[in-house]
Amino acid sequence: MRHKTLKGILTLIALTLICIPAVSAQDDAPQGILVQSNPQGALVTLKGGVTVSGVTPAQFRQLLVGTYEVVFTKDGYETYTTRVNLDPRLQSQLSVDLSPKRRWKAAMRSLVIPGWGQRYTNQNTKGLAFSVLALGSVAAFLIAEDNYSDNKDDYDRLLTRYDSVATHGTIGELQALQPRLDEAQADAYDAETFKQITLGGVIGVWALNVLDAYIFFPDRRESFNVKGFTLAPDADLNHVGLSLTKSF
Questions:
Q1: Are 135 and 113 in contact (CB under 8 A)?
Q2: What's the Cα-to-Cα distance from 24 to each of 17, 154, 207, rounded to whole Å?
Q3: Which of 62, 71, 110, 223 could cysteine-pair with 213, CB 3.0–4.6 Å?
Q4: Phi and psi angles of residue 229, each rounded to the nearest 5 degrees, phi first
Q5: Helix (H) or strand (E) holding 198
Q6: Residue 5 pLDDT > 70
Q7: Parallel, antiparallel or unpaired: strands 229-235 and 224-226
Q8: What single DSSP character describes residue 82?
Q9: What is the crossing angle of helices 124-168 and 171-215, to 10°?
Q10: CB 33 within 8 A of CB 70
């Protein structure tokens, strides 16, 4: 009887010793979510029950439960958004490849809306300037178009009256009407000329805005090349420096 009791006690101790490391290992297991991006150094924001932010690679160990929207932003790269379901008992990992912004995308945006391509590359002041210039030139064209339409209508009415007088009136009436007709024609011609100038302004501002978005697209990695040697900036989270390469 004592033998069985001693055996039972030893068995219980052995099971306890086996379970304790297992529980400890489970308690020590990493929890939360590890977020990485290529390239590194992107601002990542998790929006859900709470909002937390960090710079990749980022380890979030907060008690995050449920569905979260994850937004990656980095200068020179497209904003990336996704959703994840988080369980605080489990370790999650999220890794994304960020797409660099493209020169042609900036130009196409500016072709649609002046200044949009500049804002796409975070040149907000320049983008605002082009938007204001475009709005101003369009407004000037619309005013010129309305003024030309009024002057053209006045000239057409006088011309119709002149033709009627020429058919049924006298020489004196024609001579009295001729200066007014000439003046109306000159006013209509001047109004049309001004309308064409304002239209050229609209086209010029629009074209300049597209060219600016394409030609002055900000390259984030400028390099200097001399006789096969290329000198370019090299930076990550741990260091900033220059890299020198040789082409053969």
A1: no
A2: 11, 94, 67
A3: 110
A4: -95, 130
A5: helix 171-215
A6: no
A7: antiparallel
A8: E
A9: 160
A10: no
Alpha helices for 62-170 (secondary structure H): 103-112, 116-120, 124-168
In this structure, are residues 66 and 60 in contact, taking their beta carbons and an 8 Å threshold?
A: no
pLDDT digits (tens, 9 = 90+) for 50-76: 899 999 999 988 788 889 999 999 999
Query: Residue 46, exposed/middle/buried by CB under 10 A (0-12, 13-18, 19+)?
Result: buried
Model pLDDT for residues 67-112, shown as the tens digit of each residue: 999 999 999 999 999 999 988 788 889 999 999 999 999 999 999 9
Q: Quick one: DSSP state of residue 244?
A: E
Give the model's pLDDT for residue 169.
Answer: 78
Say which DSSP state 100 is in.
B
CATH, domain range 30-100: 2.60.40.1120
CA gap 170, 113 in Å, rounded: 57
Rounded CA gap, 200 and 194, in Å?
10
Rg from Cα positions in the chain: 37
Calculate the CA 118 to chain-centre distance. Answer: 8
- Give the position of tokens 């400890």: 24
Instruction: Report the distance separating Cα 134 and Cα 129, nearest Å.
Output: 9
Spans of all domains in the chain: 30-100, 105-215, 220-248
